[in-house]
Structures are given as structure tokens and as C-alpha cells.
């Protein structure tokens, strides 16, 4: 089918021909509402007239950046990678991914489960909800998806086939390269709130820090460890107290192990800073610290668990090494992944301060003085991460950095 | 055109339809001779009857490993990557690549310049020829081809397009992964001369060393720095005292900067060991040491020169860093490339001892005791390389390792 942008009415015509969607709704009469307020795409809720909880989501990419308009071209092929990533993650760990009922690369759209009992995690964290199962859930999802899409599990040809499926996600990878690692650390027209800001001036002149960021950018661009979500912040997680679900993997590509972990860590740092500066809720801050420690520690343990079940892979030929040497190698390997994730967290946390894409916890603070305080705190933590990531030993050191930064 | 394997006669029929080849020969009557004794492919010399120096080479891949026979399947698509690499290298530095007159991916063949005044460099080194221009030549070729196919020069989308062109060279990458990094360091049916060999036993139990090799294998598989030749030993270089030409890039893929450098260094080590143990020619050994030092040092200087002319790339946005910081970053970057190349040289040198693909300088030594002496010397040097590559500072340390190893 040739691409055309759907609207509230043509969405309903389109799904008439999609058996998997029609069999979900049965004989019900349907309605469609546009519900998305996303930056990139159009999102419709399609629901049964007589039971609006019986619903699916249709998400369609348009060939421009929705929040700016048609003059900011952005190829709709990004939806191909979102579809492929959803399918791949679903095949590895279905319970953390919305169920996909239909997808079409030619129409740049996907129809999937409507998560009505979940909220965006970023909002939940602002509202001080303690998601007690989250560290267990996300560590499983990340350990499984990263391990099973890496050369530690796949064969050499399977790994290359995986790269083939995601290598051409050119525009969104370039967006990350520019926005996460470059523009937010220099005078740039896309930056926000940097005028007359002493912290911004200091940041832009901090060459020691920027060298670290450049090293990590190079790693981001050239290190093909595993299939990443590519944008795993707390706005890409739908959650309630029982379940967590990962959405919006349009930035997916085969990149360095530590990146998704780092992005998530950085977004927890933003939340920690918000609750240090704005809500000043010590108890909730401690819950955030505990969650950080748990998800990073559990990730490492689970990753090693998955690895222990795998005998042959692109990397390892059974019998190459004795058991003790192999265990030592694996421990060193996962420690290096952990270190990189701390470095990437430094980039992600810092870029949210002046970069075009801010986070609600910091940029959303309306009181100017408080916002400045929060920004300074984020930058301080990010700097500690970046200057220490190559030698950091364990999760406790991360908590120390966060506690000492206040 | 559908693929069919050519022979002495059908080769001449095939080129009748190829204008670029026919215009090279004009009205001359032609003959074809099979001249290849390669492991993988069939090679024909097509020449004018009245002037046999007026000649071209036609190289065709068959869907099996020629030296074993049809029972060892190896997809003929490897020729696609050889053609693409020849074209890419030629576009960057034509004087080091045989001129291609015609290529066909569907027929898995390439027609190229006949290098009649050149010899295979490995043979020249055995014959103690001092190629005085070689370090200058090869350092230019490698610095240019590696730099201009990397994220230090290309844009983000150009780099991904390059990866697309080479990512599916699956079988030959897998061969390298197995043969350079795995099988030669463990009990394996493909190994040669390892029975009752004390050095082999010691090597296979040397877990400290094998951990280093595994780290480098992981880097080989996942680090996408630049387009590599992939098999740049002295048998892939045609040379005389004026010119050097790089051939046979069928192992080409986008991989780590240090690999080609390391392979070349290792093959110079084999030659050094041969002239230490067999010919015992001190003067020639010194020439080899000088060449090693020169090509590694010149490579680094030229790479930095190319880099200094490049302002914007996937990695660098103009204005991101001040000049001094950028210079420091680049120096560190090239030092790390150098270090990796020493590590890769350790793998390549050592794998030639018991691995299935030996080198003439070592495996070709007919005297068993001398061969054992040479093997021990190679292994000693390779071990020094591997145990020290992460901290090695400069080329002189490499020469020290070689001198001290005797």
C-alpha cells in the first residue's frame, strides 16, 4: 500500500482491511480519537463504542517532526526501526513490550495494545510513586535484550543480520549524536536557557569534560555491542505498581551496551535532583537511590546469568578457555559495561540542561532560582560521572556521588 | 548475467562483450592462461598473442574453497566485497591499487591490471630485498584509506552507507574470527604441527594470554572504525623497488583501525624471525626493524595530517573543542590505535604457528629443529606484544621486544 497520512476518519477505514485488528474488536462499532501529544508522530486511540476500555493504539510516523511542522523534514522510515525493535524485543521478552496487532513499514504505522492502566514513568516519579518492582523488571528486560542481541549469544552471521536490520536508522542515530553528545556542550542555536548563564559558560569551556564526552560519542557511533532501545528514558516506560512496559524504540540501533543503562540512570538522576531541590522529600530520594543501585546491580547479575547458559557464540568457542579464566573475563567485561553506562549517564544528564530536549524534572521547574539550583546539581553529578567513569568500581560509588553532590 | 564458472576458453568469449577490456586490447588476437595457485579463486592471465606483456588479469570466485574442493562450500559473494573494496580504495588512493577494467558481482569476477614487474612481497622479503620506499608507500595507503573511511572524516550517514556495503561479508569475517582469534589457540582439528609440541601445550594453557586474545577478538567483531583490507599480510602486497600495490581485499569489512596495521606488523615479525633463525643476516634484520619503525611512525603522522585537514565529521562538530584540547584528544586517539595494532599483531603472529594458515617464513622451514626455534621465537614475541599492548608507548618498544627476544 502506498503511504498516506491517516486522520481520525481514514484510520477507521484503514483498519477495516486488517484482520488481526478486526478480530480483536469483533462486531463492535468503532471510534478513533487522536490522543498523541508526542514530538514526532500521530497517535490514535481506536476503541469500541460500547466499551471504550476495549481499545488499541495506532501510531503513524509522518515525514517531518510533528512538533515543529512540515518544514522540519524527518524521514518516516524511522517507524521501520520502531516496528523492528518492538518485534525483536517482543521475541526476547514479550511481557515488557506492548503487544503488536499489526504493523506496516510502507504505511509507517503500528497498531498495538492500549495500556490503559499504566502511566508514563516520568510522571509517576514526579508524583513520588514508589515502583517497588521496577528494578527487578527493567533489569530483566535490559539484561535479556542486550545479552540476546549481542555477539556473546548470537552467531557471527546472526549478529551481522541484526546489524543489517538497524544500520540504516541514519537520521535518528544522527539526532542522538548531535543532541546527546555535541550541541548541548557548545554555543549552538538549538540550545535553551544558556544566555548569561555562568554554568553554561563554564561547561562549554570545560575541555577535560568535553574530551570524555567525545570519547563516549565515538563509542556510541562505532561500538556495535547489541540492539539498543536508543532512547530509554523514563518517558519511554509505561508503568504501574505491577507492570512496566517499554515503548517508543524508534531510536533503536546496534550500539554500545552501556548506553541504554546510562540514559536510564541519568533520568533517575534528574528525578533525584528534582526531589532534592523542589519536593525535598528525603524518603523518596532514598527510594530513588535504592532503585538505581538495584537496577544496576541486578542488571549485571542477570546478564552474567544469561551468559552462563550460553556455550557457543560469535565470541566464544566451547573449550577455548578454562572455567576460572572465563569467569574472570566475564566479570571484567560486565564491569566495563557498568563503567561505560556511568559515562553515558553523565552525557545524558548534562545534555538535558541546555540541550534542546529538556526533561520535565529540571526544565519544568517554574521558579527560576530553584531551576538554576537543580541545573547546577545535575551538572555537578554529571561531571563526577564523566571524570570517574573509567575507574568506578561499584554502584555504591554512584550513590556516594549523588549524596555528596547536594 | 547468470553466474557460470569460466575456463580458459569461455574466459575469452566472456570478455568479447566487455567494452572496457576490448578497447584495452584493440584488434589484437588474445589468449588466456590459468595462472592462479591461490587458495580461493581461479585466476587467468589474458594477453595479446603478439605482445604477451599487454595483459590483464581475470579473477573469478567459485562457490567453494578452491584449494580443498567443491565439498568445502564458501559463497562466491566474497567477490562482491573484493570488488567494492578495490573500488573504494582506488577512489581514495589509486596508485596503490591495481586498475580495475571490469567487474561483475553476478559473475563474481573482476578484470584488472596485470602487474608484471611486481613480485609478492613475502617472496621479496625471503629473498632479502630492501624495499626502501615501502614504509613511505604503505603508511600513506593505510593512513588514507583508514582515515577517509572512518567517522573522523565521513558524515554519520556516509559511514552507515559504507557499513551497509560491507556488513554482509559474513563468511570471510567468520573465517578471520575463527582462524585468527580462536582455533589456533586451542586443541582443534584444523591445527597443524601441534602434536607432542611443548610450546603448543603451553600456549593452549596460557589463560592470561588467551584473555587478551579474546578481548581483541571482541574488538575485531564489534568495533566499526573504518574499512579494512582485512588480510593485509605480505602476500597481499605486490611490490618492486619503485611501487607497491595492495591486492586481494576479499576479507574487507568495517572493523577496528588497528587490525590491518597489526597483521602487517606480524608478518614483518615472521620475516624478522626467519632472518634471525634461518638466514641469520643481521643487516637485513636491521632493515626489517627500521621498516617496522618507519611504517608505524609514518602511519601515525600521516593519519594526524589527514585529520588536521578535516573540520566536520560524524565525530566532530566545528567549534566543539578548543585547539589544544583537540590536539590532545587526537594524540591519545592515535596512540590507542597504535596500541591495538600491537595487540592484533600478537594474535596474527601467534596464530600462524599452529593455525591452519601458516606463513612460508615459519611453516616453510624444512629443518625441524630450526622450525621449532623459529616457532618458539614467534610465540615469545607475540606474547610480549599481547601482554604489553595496552601500555606500550612507542615504536622503539616494539624494536626492543624483537631484539630482546632472540
From TrEMBL, chains A, B:
MF term (GO), any: S-methyl-5-thioribose kinase activity
Keyword DNA-binding applies: no
Aminoglycoside phosphotransferase domain boundaries: 55-269
Cross-referenced InterPro entries: Aminoglycoside_PTrfase, Kinase-like_dom_sf, Methylthioribose_kinase
Name of the top EC class for this enzyme: transferase
Biological processes annotated in GO: methionine biosynthetic process
Protein keywords: ATP-binding, Kinase, Nucleotide-binding, Transferase
This enzyme's EC code(s): 2.7.1.100
Presence of keyword ATP-binding: yes
Quaternary organization: Homodimer.
Family: Belongs to the methylthioribose kinase family.
UniProt xrefs under NCBIfam families: MTRK
Protein known as: S-methyl-5-thioribose kinase
Source organism per UniProt: Sulfurimonas denitrificans (strain ATCC 33889 / DSM 1251) (Thiomicrospira denitrificans (strain ATCC 33889 / DSM 1251))
